[in-house]
Amino acid sequence: MAKVFLLPIETTSRELDYKIFISCLLAEKGSKVFIGSKSKISYFLNCFESFTYLDKGFHFGNSENFFNKLKQRKAVILSLDEEGAIDFSDGSALNKRYSKGLFDEVNKVYFWGKAQFEKYGKRSKNTNQSLITGHPRFQILKPEYRDIFKNNSDLLKQKYGKFILVNTNTSFGNHIKGDKFVLENYRNRFPKIDQIISQDKKKFEHICQTIESISTISDIRIILRPHPEEKADSYHDRLCHVNSLKIVKEGSVIPWISASSSVIHSDCTTAIESVMLGKDTISAIPLGLDTNLLCPLPIGVSYKSLNTENAAEMAVSGLPVNYSSNADKILEDYFSHNLDSLNLLVDDMLSESSNSSIIKEKALFAKKIKLFLRNIFIDKSDILINEKTKGLNRKNFIKRFGIISKYLKVSAALRVKVESDSLFRISKFR
Length: 430
What we know:
The chain has two domains: 4-139 and 336-428, Glycogen Phosphorylase B (Rossmann fold), CATH 3.40.50.2000; 144-327, Glycogen Phosphorylase B (Rossmann fold, 3-Layer(aba) Sandwich). It is α/β, with parallel strands linked by helices. The chain is globular and about 65 Å long. Strand 11 (262-265), helix 13 and strand 12 (280-283) form a beta-alpha-beta unit. Helices cover 46% and strands 16% of the residues. The strands form three sheets. An eight-stranded mixed sheet has the order 7-6-5-4-1-2-16-15, with helices on both faces. Strands 10-9-8-11-12-13 form a six-stranded parallel sheet, sandwiched between helices.
């Protein structure tokens, strides 16, 4: 009997590629993998039994109810946190995400690096409950994997020529649903949410001023990529006078980084990816911010600009010849950059999974019909969910599957079956 795995996706741009990698490797070894939006997997949950679920982050007070539903279906719950390294200086976010409650609920916790494992792994119920695996999304940035992004990167170079990439992460202060939504939905997780919102607004303005500084010293194209949860119109309104600026919110950030000449950010995770891809990476942060509410790792791997003019100069002209950073140590301690994360993770997932998985095909078909009819008559679109799952559709999924499966040289019998508009099955079809 084939093992069954459910892999939820919350943010397509950062999760899709590496989860297709994992799915292909699992399916090549005889498993059936369902990969899709978190909401779709939740909707079809009752169609499965004794499966393995790869969770993407624990939230105390919210995750427990869903985990109980999984346990009722006799699921094995494995945790690979999507935010497993980037945190404020005081460690408050990861302390909650890797709380004792997580270890009480799940079968296995996968850590990105030894630094996190040494700090939080002691909360494990036993020595076998935790494993350092790194994270596949960073492994596929290594040179031997970059062909999977090359075509998209080349197209961006052809379209835009030489450009500076600016990645932002001020979603608390520039949220697509506004400040009220952030206050109501994040206060329990972040006691200092008022200060975080205020600080994000200052970071927003500093990034805008940095872009203006670039435009005054060079006519180079500037590409601004807001965080998926940010309101892009805020940047359009603030920077409408900068003719060299293009604001985009599409696809994975990796081809954009690969195609860029340099990358500017505040304290964003994309700095890690930028450094791994060998790009000049500049952190642009205004003076006077509370450093306890900044993320030190992205800053630590980057050139720390003195002001907006300095950030602009470094992005246009390049970093100083004698510049050096602490990047190598950070990448190894927190991201396990030298591990073979994909195979390490897949092998352990297989060893932890159940051998008696059940797919209730008739129930699955019935729920698909019900979902189809419901979508005809009821509009349940949500601007935030739609933005985060942009690209999780049949056309893009099959395209990315084709590229990744070709790279992996998997069996010709490995195919995709579209179960719904954002849920896909990868397995060997005879």
